From TrEMBL:
One of its GO terms (molecular function) is metal ion binding. The keyword Isomerase applies. Keywords: Carbohydrate metabolism, Cobalt, Isomerase, Manganese, Metal-binding, Zinc. Its EC number is 5.1.3.1. This is Ribulose-phosphate 3-epimerase. The keyword Transport does not apply. Binds 1 divalent metal cation per subunit. It comes from Aphidius gifuensis (Parasitoid wasp). The active site is at residues 39, 176. Pathway: Carbohydrate degradation; pentose phosphate pathway; D-xylulose 5-phosphate from D-ribulose 5-phosphate (non-oxidative stage): step 1/1. CDD domains: RPE. Its cofactor is Co(2+); Fe(2+); Zn(2+); Mn(2+).
Amino acid sequence: MSEQLTAKIGPSILNSDLSSLYEESQKLLDNGADYLHLDVMDGHFVPNITFGHPVVKCLRNKIKNAFFETHMMVSKPEQWINSMADAGVDQYTFHVEPVDCVPDICRKVKEAGMKVGVALKPGTPVDVVVDYIDMADMVLIMTVEPGFGGQKFMDSMMEKVSWLRNNYPSLDIEVDGGVGINNIDVCAKAGANMIVSGTAVTGSSEPAKVIATLKNSVNYCLAKH
């Protein structure tokens, strides 16, 4: 089953110059990004605030065809489903921790026409996904605490990735937080195929080279499975 999986690199635009959001986003796509990872923070679930659906909609008006994933670091993910669908989001990834009934949110996201991503903080056991894995298109394993850029990558989270890959061979598994050239092999070997990378890409003088290196590592491991 795993041969259907492909490596997808989705730079986080959070570390870009947000005053030039369209230009920065287009540059990432021109340099080989497969999708854009849009970090939405509400100041409650995480201490920081970033941007919401009006900004995403403006970006979609400029960038018609790219795959947009919103990473909803928010306390009430149900509140923004329709707004983000209206803004042209392709995948709505939300955290399970503040949610009472995850399947409900999954269903509403699907009904709004978006793919479903479920995200787990480092302290959340991976086997919680068993109850709703059949409704999810992707699982995001956070490799840092959500809410701040530039944190140190947590190697111990690779056990979660391996567990998911072993139990769900055809599942899209994303990692996010401190991922770059130095640790991409660890992520790829564990089974992650969707890679969010922030500063490693946006802070590089050769972003295309970084994206290609990340993708090559994942594709190499996918080919061996």
